[in-house]
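Colleagues,

Please find the record for the two-part complex below.
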Amino acid sequence: MKISISKIIIFSFIIFSFLIFWQGLKKNNDYDTKNLIGNKISNFQLIDLNNEKKLITEEDLRKNEYTLINFFASWCSPCRTEHEYLLKLSNKKIRIIGINFKDKKSNAISFLEELGNPYDFIGKDKNGKISVLFGIYGIPETLIVDSSLIVIKKYIGPIDQNQYDEILKLIQ
Amino acid sequence: MKLKKIIFVIYALFLTPLYSNDNKVVASEVYKNLRCLVCQGQSIADSNSDFATTIKLVVLDQINEGKKEDEIYNFLISKYGEWITYHPTFNKNNFLLWTLPYAVLVLGGFIIFLIVRKNKHNKAN
């Protein structure tokens, strides 16, 4: 039986197109940056929320084995749900830096007075520019960096029990 | 001398907005090439979301600092991944995207060549 080359080509093309569309349907199209780990954080300087003269820089973070950096705001409802986990982590062997994102200072202070303050340092990010340096695109988001300032974990959305356990496992 | 000073001041006053407008034109081009990560199918230029507003501020800052477009894209790619730009670079994950149109073009040409040759051959017989 003679099969023409053009028939083979057309058949291969149909199979190929089918596989491409099949793969496309299986792929999750909701993009997030949680897999963007391994990047180094650099060129930042955080100003303390309560004292403008107090700063935190890269050198300060290098002193810690692990640093948890949490972006939060008083207007962010999911930030409330993760707060209990941050409070629990504040007693553990990890330094916690909070960055108050596009918030009013008075509201941030009230928020922390109401729920408790888990942070060793609170930086302010009045217009959100700092958040871009950390690759943040919505809050709450949490990063864990090592002493070389390499991002080793990234949590998009509020921290839950599983993620809390994961962080504990990491720092132990 | 006084006249020279006046001319210099007027020149500086006119030049500043021109320079600033020029930066805004470049910035708006950059915004169009950036994808808003929290919006459905919108660019940074189209969106008024919190994220887009922040990215616009950062891009404008970087242009004012004298950074080139590619430097700004590379900076944002390093923070948010390649998805943030509408210009994917050639890599092993998207090589088909870049090469397939050319491959199809060559293949199409080859098929046409085969058909034409076959027709000629049939006519000759």
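The first strand of chain A starts at residue 45 and ends at 47.

Comments are welcome before we finalize the supplementary table.
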